[in-house]
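User: My collaborator sent over this chain with a note saying "see what the structure looks like." That's all I know about it. Can you take a look?
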Amino acid sequence: MIDHLLNFPDEATAAAALPEYCDEAYVWRGDCCIPGVRVYQVTGTETLTDPETGEEFERELVAVYPSWFVLIARPELDLLLHELDACCLVRDREASAILFTAPDFDGAIISPQFA
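Assistant: Without extra context I'll predict from the sequence alone. Here is the result:
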């Protein structure tokens, strides 16, 4: 499967741009879409101390991308999705390969993802 990550200012803009995947009531196709995914990058770590046990542990620091994202899975590369200005990442899930990534999205983490 090929996953296409698309970046929009908000859900209404995404729904208007992708009518074959979402209706006017913002009901996204559950068979191939994960709307509202969180996209972020790990920017570092910090050491914290558990106040009850005194144990130290590391916590990741993250920078969350501020836009609204939808992840759309297709059996093959969808050129219509890929050619949209909103497309910021295309990956082949089965081959564990990135086919396209916009410069600002190199190393981005997507949550949730397709299994």
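A starting point for your reply to your collaborator: The helical segments are 11-17, 79-82.
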